Amino acid sequence: QHVDNKWVSSSSEIIAFRKVLLNPVTANQFQRFVSLKGDLLENGVLFWQEVQKYKDLCHSHCDDATVQKKITAIINCFINSAIPPALQIDIPNEQAKKILEHRKQLGPYIFREAQMTIFALLFKFWPKFCKFRSNLDSDKILLALERKKGKKMRKKEG
């Protein structure tokens, strides 16, 4: 719903968006969609999903070594990457530092702030994505996104 040209979200929209991110097919469509909007947004989708898997791992009561490996993998991929830039997701440097400082503390909340930041950032694109996909059959969404990406690449080259 729109109020003074600002998107006001209801809990049902937040839940719907969360379901999209948890569904591999729609998450992939959304990831491709946001990749056209900014360089790190695509990684944000992957980060959010990996943190969900990490939290599931914590709740499954698996051994500490496995949990620590998952923390390290997420950090090496998104927070302190060997591939520049070190920070591969769009979060404040303070949040990244905090995660690095607490990397040895096991538990489901180490990435909580960063995941909430990413969710809020991605959620801004949710209305545009809904509008975009409402005009297409689900099997045509990725094709349409590939076309848009091609046009964007040609603009960069041209």
Automatic annotation (TrEMBL):
GO terms for biological process: regulation of signal transduction. Residues 16-122 form the RGS domain. Pfam families: RGS (PF00615). One of its GO terms (molecular function) is G-protein alpha-subunit binding. InterPro entries: RGS, Rgs22, RGS22_RGS_fourth, RGS_sf, RGS_subdomain_2. SUPFAM superfamilies: Regulator of G-protein signaling, RGS. CDD domains: RGS_RGS22_4. GO terms for cellular component: cytoplasm; nucleus. This is Regulator of G-protein signaling 22. It comes from Nipponia nippon. The lineage of its organism: Eukaryota, Metazoa, Chordata, Craniata, Vertebrata.
